């Protein structure tokens, strides 16, 4: 199956980029005489040479985030909580991404598409890197990106300045930090929606936030850029915004806009649309509710025009023109991209696949095909206490099921991965149900499950690095 990254990290440490634009002059030449001890799987000398440039860049990012946080809190003291969450999340994600932090990812599709958009084109200006792998699309003598364009549209203003030198790793991890902040902001709204409402205790809010940001596949997906991971992180961003609008001010047009942008990052999330209508109907008249459909219809028309301009048909997404590995191409040709025959394999890797245990770091070894989401995030076991009679709970659980269906029927499990990455499409919905199940309180059992989830998040990150180095 397709691998979502390189076999070697050698390319990540050439031509460093800082932030979204190059910063010249940040070079440090380590002495050739270095200790030869081993930390984890790395020789210390090699590790020092590998990390010196990312650490310098990380120090500047930390300084910038600190200054920004001080300015925000100085101007808006009531934003201390969300500012701290964003600062902490961004710093952890940046540190976690350190080996890949100063360069583009192996699959910078959105960078090249954003560059094309900035020049008024919808096809790439030049042959992309690694054109015969990583799902680039070749049609009618032109290179294209078939994936939905929302992340590239957000990169376009940067591409006007930086061209194809955008660092999609940093771009992705900043949106990932925003996701954690949005979820932190969303938690108090859950208790207000239930019939037997509750106030969320600060400790429970913190525990849920840490579990979402660092106790799920969200952690390692945040740290590597790459077209597939960037799409999932941004889809989660817009899904969280849609949920916040729906549970907060409940403006149908804005909720529809956020959901449309989420679907323009990851199409499966569009299947949650009926659930949003169901929730918004409680606080809006039928006439106002129709406004929810306007952004979705507009996005559909624009996507149809985009497809027509690229492939001559409004319904052609271009996936069948992707340059796939021979094995994948044969599978798709024989059975198609979606088929009920894939359900058994996908269900196994999403819910039943277990890791192997070993006596040395990282102790828990994942096979790269997937991992049970209950092992990746043990806190989800708390869903056994979910109040199923609550409308909000019914809605988000149905929404999570609907969003999961396309991935269950897809020919690709998500390989290469450290956990079942497609779960991020519906995890924001599951965590709403989880907040309702815990009823605003974190007891000892909840803290144990949350800490185990964070530990699994760390081990998943380590596993993905090791899988990429194989």
How does the SSE layout of this entry go?
Elements: E1 38-39, E2 42-43, H1 44-75, H2 80-96, H3 109-118, E3 137-139, E4 142-144, H4 150-162, H5 168-193, H6 202-214, H7 218-221, H8 227-247, H9 252-263, H10 273-280, H11 286-289, H12 293-311, H13 326-335, H14 343-352, E5 356-357, E6 364-365, H15 373-376, H16 391-408, H17 427-438, H18 444-469
Antiparallel strand pairs: 1-2, 3-4, 5-6
Structural write-up:
The protein has 470 residues and is an all-alpha fold. The chain has one domain. Helix content is 55%, strand content 3%. The strands form 3 sheets. Strands 1-2 form a two-stranded antiparallel ribbon. Strands 3-4 form a two-stranded antiparallel ribbon. A two-stranded antiparallel sheet has the order 5-6. β1 and β2 form a beta hairpin. The longest helix has 32 residues. The two termini are 16 Å apart. The N terminus is likely disordered.
Give me some keywords for this one.
18 helices, two-stranded antiparallel sheet, two-stranded antiparallel ribbon, 470 residues, single chain, 6 strands, mainly alpha, 3% strand
What is shown here, in short?
This protein is mostly helical.
Number of strands: 6
Integer count of domains: 1
Whole-number radius of gyration?
Answer: 22 Å
Low-confidence stretches: 1-36, 38-42
The proportion of strand residues reads: under 5%
Tell me which oligomeric state these chains represent.
Answer: single chain
Mean pLDDT: 87
Share of helical residues: 55-70%
> What's the helix-strand series?
EEHHHEEHHHHHHHHHHHEEHHHH
Distance N to C terminus? 16 Å
Largest sheet: 2 strands, antiparallel
SSE-based structural type: mainly alpha
Strand order of the largest sheet: 1-2
* General shape: globular
H/I helix tally: 18
């Amino acid at each position: 199956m397709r691998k979502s990254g390189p076999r070697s990290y050698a390319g990540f440490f050439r031509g460093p980029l800082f932030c979204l634009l190059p910063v010249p002059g940040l070079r440090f030449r380590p002495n050739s005489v270095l200790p030869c001890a081993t930390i984890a799987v790395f020789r210390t000398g090699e590790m020092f040479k590998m990390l010196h440039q990312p650490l310098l860049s990380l120090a500047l990012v930390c300084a910038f985030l600190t200054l920004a946080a001080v300015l925000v809190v100085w101007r808006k003291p009531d934003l201390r909580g969300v500012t701290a969450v964003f600062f902490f999340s961004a710093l952890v994600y940046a540190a976690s991404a350190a080996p890949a932090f100063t360069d583009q990812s192996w699959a910078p599709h959105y960078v090249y598409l954003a560059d094309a958009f900035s020049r008024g084109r919808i096809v790439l200006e030049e042959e992309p890197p690694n054109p015969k792998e990583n799902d680039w699309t070749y049609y009618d003598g032109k290179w294209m990106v078939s994936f939905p364009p929302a992340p590239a549209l957000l990169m376009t203003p940067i591409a006007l300045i930086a061209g194809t030198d955008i660092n999609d790793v940093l771009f992705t991890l900043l949106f990932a930090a925003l996701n954690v902040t949005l979820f932190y902001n969303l938690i108090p709204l859950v208790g207000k929606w239930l019939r037997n409402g509750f106030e969320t205790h600060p400790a429970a809010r913190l525990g849920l936030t840490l579990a979402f940001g660092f106790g799920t596949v969200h952690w390692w997906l945040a740290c590597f850029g790459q077209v597939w991971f960037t799409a999932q992180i941004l889809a989660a961003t817009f899904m969280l915004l849609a949920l916040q609008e729906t549970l907060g001010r409940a403006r149908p047009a804005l909720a529809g806009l956020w959901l449309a942008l989420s679907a323009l990052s990851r199409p499966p999330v569009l299947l949650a649309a009926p659930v949003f209508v169901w929730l918004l109907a409680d606080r809006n008249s039928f006439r106002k509710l129709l406004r929810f459909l306007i952004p979705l219809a507009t996005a559909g028309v624009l996507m149809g025009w985009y497809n027509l301009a690229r492939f001559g048909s409004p319904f052609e997404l271009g996936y069948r023109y992707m340059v796939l590995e021979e094995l994948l191409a044969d599978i798709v040709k024989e059975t198609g991209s979606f088929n009920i025959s894939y359900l058994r394999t996908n269900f196994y890797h999403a819910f039943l696949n277990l890791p192997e245990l070993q006596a040395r770091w990282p102790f828990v070894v994942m096979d790269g095909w997937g991992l049970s989401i209950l092992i990746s995030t043990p806190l989800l076991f708390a869903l056994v206490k979910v109040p199923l009679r609550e409308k909000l709970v019914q809605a988000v659980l149905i929404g999570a099921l609907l969003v999961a269906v396309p991935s269950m029927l897809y020919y690709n499990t998500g390989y290469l991965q450290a956990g079942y990455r497609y779960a991020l499409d519906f995890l924001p919905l599951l965590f709403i149900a989880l907040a309702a199940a815990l009823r605003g309180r974190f007891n000892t059992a909840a803290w144990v499950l949350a800490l185990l989830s964070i530990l699994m998040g760390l081990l998943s990150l380590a596993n993905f690095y090791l899988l990429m180095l194989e």
